[in-house]
Amino acid sequence: RRARRWCGWLPLRGSANPCGMKILTPMVALITNSEVLQVLKDRGADLQLGGRAVGSEKLAHAYLENNSAGIRHAAALREFIDMLKPFNLTRTEALSIINTCPTSMVEVFLLVDRCDTRLTEEQMEAILDLVAMHLKH
Questions:
Q1: Which residues, 6+ apart, have CB-to-CB distance to 16 below 8 Å?
Q2: Torsion angle of alpha carbons 133, 131, 72, 8, nearest 10°?
Q3: N or C: which end of the chain has fewer CB within 10 A?
């Protein structure tokens, strides 16, 4: 008889997934690294002892704490996304910019689909200026 690992979730009967996790609704929303960090803090991943977070959540918390975009408040995130509206970026592109905090035009080019036809060099520079002013990395 095989022993089950405890992954912080209740196992599902007959599940091939060793942790028994079930995705109820895939891709409901896209979220930023800062929002993921907040969820991990709510689960207690920032606590050395206690909390409901499992090891992988604590590792993710440590990584995001050091590498995530500096905006921590939902209102500031919405304000930054509004500042990107003149560039007609998709929500995915805007969130990619928030999560990676690009510092060069090459990075913007990689984050924005068909960037060469959609944005001028001046617009890419403007995006970089917004990132430098409003996101701490």
A1: none
A2: -160
A3: N
Is residue 61 within 8 A of residue 48, CB to CB? The reply is no
Query: Any idea which residue has 């992954």 for tokens?
Result: 7
Question: What is the tens place of the pLDDT at every residue in 97-124?
Answer: 998 889 999 999 999 999 999 999 999 9
Which residue is listed with tokens 């209740």?
A: 10
How far from 68 is each of 8, 16, 44, CA to CA, in Å? Answer: 25, 33, 18
How far is residue 99's CA from residue 94's CA, in Å, rounded to a whole number?
9
Give the residue ranges of the chain where pLDDT is below 70.
1-23, 27, 49-50, 68-72, 136-137
Q: pTM, whole model, 2 decimals?
A: 0.70
